Prior knowledge:
five-stranded antiparallel β-sheet, alpha+beta, 23% helix
Amino acid sequence: MELQEGDWVRSYGSGIWQIYRILRYIGKDPATGSKQEITTVFSKRFVLDSFKRSFTEDCCHPGFVEKLDKQAAKELSDFIEANPSLYAKFCKYEPKSIDHIYNARIGIQEGSSTSDIEKILSTNRVFNELEIEHYLRDSGLDTKEPAFWTAQFVSANHQCEHGYLVYRFSRVLGS
């Protein structure tokens, strides 16, 4: 069965969740580097398995998400009916932004500091996942040799443009 916004589900985190966003975009296959379609499911948790309130948000691959079975759906329906004010609070709950992080390995340039590299990479430009490694190489950074630091790029709230997540350079993480 196809997952849809509004579905009550179980996810890899415990409890009962409701899907509020499904995002499909083009990303990079980590094994081959080629383009692949990726789906991310965003859900907000209503209660723990013990039916104790536990509002939070998360996102994951749809393979970790399954709709509630009939028994669990009935238990949830009965719980909502018995706790209308808690359910109303949940309906008003706005999930926090969930950023996507892209960590790119870069070779350490002898005599360089993380702030030196950050100055090289600092830009207002946005990148899709397929453009980041080219940008790093065009900036004179080695992405293949050992002795790595990490150039971190962030896609704020999984921002998508033209079918791709878009990232901004954030920082360099040294050893």
